[in-house]
Amino acid sequence: MFIPGARHELSDHFLALANPTRLRILQRLGEIGEESVNDLALALRMSQPRISWHLRMLRVGGAVRQRRDGRQVYCSLDTDTIARRHQELRELLHLQHLERQKIVVQR
Description:
Layout: H1 9-17, H2 20-32, E1 34-36, H3 37-43, H4 48-60, E2 64-69, E3 72-77, H5 79-92, H6 95-106
Antiparallel strand pairs: 1-3, 2-3
Helix pairs in contact: 1-4, 3-4
Protein backbone atom coordinates (compact mmCIF):
# COMPACT_ATOMS: atom_id res chain seq x y z
CA MET A 1 0.00 0.00 0.00
CA PHE A 2 1.14 3.55 -0.66
CA ILE A 3 2.23 5.40 2.45
CA PRO A 4 2.20 9.22 2.47
CA GLY A 5 5.34 11.09 3.46
CA ALA A 6 8.65 12.04 1.93
CA ARG A 7 10.58 9.09 3.30
CA HIS A 8 8.35 6.64 1.44
CA GLU A 9 8.57 8.29 -1.97
CA LEU A 10 11.27 5.92 -3.23
CA SER A 11 9.44 2.77 -2.14
CA ASP A 12 6.13 4.15 -3.50
CA HIS A 13 7.81 4.79 -6.84
CA PHE A 14 9.11 1.25 -7.26
CA LEU A 15 5.91 -0.24 -5.88
CA ALA A 16 4.05 1.63 -8.62
CA LEU A 17 6.34 0.04 -11.22
CA ALA A 18 5.90 -3.48 -9.83
CA ASN A 19 2.83 -4.37 -11.87
CA PRO A 20 2.61 -5.59 -15.47
CA THR A 21 -0.46 -3.47 -16.26
CA ARG A 22 1.20 -0.31 -14.97
CA LEU A 23 4.29 -1.12 -17.01
CA ARG A 24 2.07 -1.40 -20.10
CA ILE A 25 0.60 2.01 -19.29
CA LEU A 26 4.09 3.49 -18.94
CA GLN A 27 5.18 1.89 -22.21
CA ARG A 28 2.15 3.34 -24.01
CA LEU A 29 2.74 6.81 -22.57
CA GLY A 30 6.40 6.56 -23.54
CA GLU A 31 5.38 5.81 -27.12
CA ILE A 32 2.54 8.35 -27.40
CA GLY A 33 3.72 11.10 -25.07
CA GLU A 34 0.35 12.23 -23.73
CA GLU A 35 -3.00 10.51 -23.94
CA SER A 36 -6.45 10.91 -22.44
CA VAL A 37 -7.55 8.37 -19.86
CA ASN A 38 -10.37 7.24 -22.16
CA ASP A 39 -8.05 6.73 -25.15
CA LEU A 40 -5.56 4.93 -22.93
CA ALA A 41 -8.32 2.59 -21.74
CA LEU A 42 -9.32 1.88 -25.34
CA ALA A 43 -5.74 1.27 -26.47
CA LEU A 44 -5.06 -1.15 -23.61
CA ARG A 45 -8.53 -2.76 -23.82
CA MET A 46 -9.34 -2.06 -20.20
CA SER A 47 -12.20 -0.32 -18.45
CA GLN A 48 -11.81 3.37 -17.66
CA PRO A 49 -12.21 2.82 -13.87
CA ARG A 50 -9.49 0.15 -13.90
CA ILE A 51 -7.10 2.37 -15.89
CA SER A 52 -7.85 5.27 -13.53
CA TRP A 53 -7.02 3.10 -10.52
CA HIS A 54 -3.66 2.11 -12.03
CA LEU A 55 -2.97 5.72 -13.04
CA ARG A 56 -3.56 6.79 -9.45
CA MET A 57 -0.94 4.31 -8.27
CA LEU A 58 1.48 5.62 -10.90
CA ARG A 59 0.73 9.23 -9.95
CA VAL A 60 1.30 8.57 -6.23
CA GLY A 61 4.53 6.82 -7.19
CA GLY A 62 5.63 9.84 -9.20
CA ALA A 63 5.77 8.08 -12.56
CA VAL A 64 2.83 9.84 -14.22
CA ARG A 65 1.43 13.36 -14.21
CA GLN A 66 -2.08 14.35 -15.14
CA ARG A 67 -3.70 17.50 -16.45
CA ARG A 68 -7.35 18.31 -16.90
CA ASP A 69 -8.83 19.99 -19.97
CA GLY A 70 -12.54 20.42 -19.38
CA ARG A 71 -13.90 16.96 -18.63
CA GLN A 72 -10.95 15.14 -20.18
CA VAL A 73 -7.96 14.03 -18.10
CA TYR A 74 -4.67 13.63 -19.95
CA CYS A 75 -1.70 11.62 -18.71
CA SER A 76 2.00 11.72 -19.51
CA LEU A 77 5.21 10.38 -18.03
CA ASP A 78 6.74 12.42 -15.21
CA THR A 79 10.27 11.96 -16.52
CA ASP A 80 11.82 14.38 -14.01
CA THR A 81 10.49 12.45 -11.02
CA ILE A 82 11.34 9.10 -12.61
CA ALA A 83 14.94 10.22 -13.13
CA ARG A 84 15.12 11.63 -9.58
CA ARG A 85 13.83 8.39 -7.99
CA HIS A 86 16.28 6.30 -9.99
CA GLN A 87 19.12 8.60 -8.91
CA GLU A 88 18.00 8.21 -5.29
CA LEU A 89 18.15 4.44 -5.70
CA ARG A 90 21.65 4.67 -7.17
CA GLU A 91 22.73 6.76 -4.19
CA LEU A 92 21.06 4.38 -1.74
CA LEU A 93 22.93 1.46 -3.27
CA HIS A 94 26.19 3.44 -3.55
CA LEU A 95 26.34 2.67 -7.26
CA GLN A 96 28.21 5.88 -8.15
CA HIS A 97 31.02 4.80 -5.84
CA LEU A 98 31.15 1.36 -7.45
CA GLU A 99 31.03 2.84 -10.97
CA ARG A 100 33.93 5.18 -10.16
CA GLN A 101 35.93 2.22 -8.87
CA LYS A 102 35.15 0.30 -12.06
CA ILE A 103 36.33 3.22 -14.22
CA VAL A 104 39.60 3.45 -12.27
CA VAL A 105 40.19 -0.29 -12.57
CA GLN A 106 39.51 -0.26 -16.32
CA ARG A 107 42.07 2.47 -17.00
